[in-house]
Structure formats: C-alpha cells, structure tokens
Amino acid sequence: MAVRQRLTPAQREQFERDGFLVVRKVFTDDEVKGLCDTFMRLHALGLQGALDWYRPTPPTQTDDPLKIYPRIMHPHRYDETARRYMLDDRLLDILADLFGEEPMAAQSMFYFKPPGARGQALHQDNFYLKAHPGTCMAAWVAIDPADEENGGMMVVPGTHRMDIVCPEEADPNESFTTHFVPPPAGTQPILVPLEAGDVLFFNGSLIHGSPPNRSRHRFRRAFICHYVGTSCTKIARYYLPLYLRDGRTIDLPVNEWGGPCGEEFPEPKGPH
C-alpha cells in the first residue's frame, strides 16, 4: 500500500494563515509528461473534429492563441487519465488534511496558456461553485514551470477570510474572462513560482489570477481540479455529479443562490 501523504503542522498553519499552500513535486517528471501528452493528443483530436466535446479553432482561422488552444473543461467526464489524476490519492490526502474531512471532486480543467495568451483577472472560485456550507478548494498542478514571464499564478494572501464579493469588469486586453475582484486595501497579489509537478492548493475564497503569457515560445500548461468537503450540502448545477475517492458519483441539491450579485450572474460557467 502506498504511503499516504500528510501535511506538517507548519504547512497546515501556513494554509490557515495565507489561504494557499505549495507542495513541491507531488507528481514525477514522467507523470507530468504523461498528463501533458494526454492533453496535447486531445487537442490534436479536437482540431481534427474527432471530439464532440472539445472544438479548438484551427490556426488558419484565428490569430487568438486561446481560440487555437482553448481550455478543456471537465475532461474527467470523458477521459480516464484525467479522471484518474483528479482522484489521485496524493491530491486527495492533502485535501483531506486541508478540509479536515474527506474531499469530493467537483471539476477538472486543463489550461494550455500558449505564448501570447491573455491572462485571467483576479477572482474567487467559490463565486462560481457556490459550495455551501464552507467553500471549495483548488489543486493547481503545474505541467510546465510557471513564472512571471509565462503568466504564472498570482495570489493575494489572507483574502480567503473575505466573503465572496460581486466582481467588477476585467480589462479584456489583459484577461480572457470578464470578472475582476480588486484586492482589498492593504493587500496585493504576489507571484507563486512553480516547477513542473508542483501543486498549488488554495481556498475557494482566495483572490487569485494570472497575467498574460508574455513569453515567445513557452506554454504555461496546468491541470486544475476543484473539490468540496463531505459536509458540503449544496453546489452549483454545473459541477454535478461529484466524484468520491473510489470513483463513485454523488448528486447534491443545486445551490440556486444568486450570490453577491443577486441574479445578475445566476449560473456562471465555472471558474476560469
């Protein structure tokens, strides 16, 4: 039986204080390459029209890198490799420590973020998942090294203690998403440099985002999953069914709450 990965008291204390935690080299170089190869293959199949759930735009028809390489949403529903890594014990054991209870998987995504791609304005994930009670958590697996040049992750430490707030409009020249949550007075975003195989875990209320990929040749690919604890009783419709550690699925009542914006954004399509 594999040794279960547990966090140290210092790691748990840092997560409680800052709202995020980096765990280095959760996945090996070979595993990261396997994940990368899987999604590059799915991208190639999508360009050929071989997938009905993922349709990138051929480069002959657009100059927008994010249309050529759009994110893949919920690949665990269609691909066994994505589902296996979403439910990997190494992620789930760390999340169990952070939640204080067993996690359930709600979402998977793969971001290619090719050279020249816009970033994603600062936001809070639980604005979209609407997990209740409590919040969701993310496990952000770096497939490539992520740094300032290629649009690495930015977080605003301590903002996980905030309520979910109604976002403002994002700058479309910098962000491919429309929502922007400004950091509160006295706080500012910091870069979280990551190497391939590292995992950034963060609270669903933490303000986070990323700048554009300003490199000329480097991707900033990431496999990203969201989870809730077993005490969660409601979640937004888009994230059902939830997946248990053993692969079984479970449905919860849908959280119809409109959030801090009322019904202005009644059912947004997931964290971006």
UniProtKB/TrEMBL annotation:
Tagged with keyword Oxidoreductase: yes
Keyword Nucleus: no
Keyword annotations: Dioxygenase, Oxidoreductase
EC number: 1.14.11.-
Family annotation (SUPFAM superfamilies): Clavaminate synthase-like (SSF51197)
A GO molecular-function descriptor: 2-oxoglutarate-dependent dioxygenase activity
Pfam family, any one: PhyH
PANTHER family assigned to the protein according to its UniProt record, in alphabetical order: ECTOINE DIOXYGENASE, PHYTANOYL-COA DIOXYGENASE DOMAIN CONTAINING 1
Name of this chain's protein: Ectoine dioxygenase
Species of provenance: Candidatus Fervidibacter japonicus
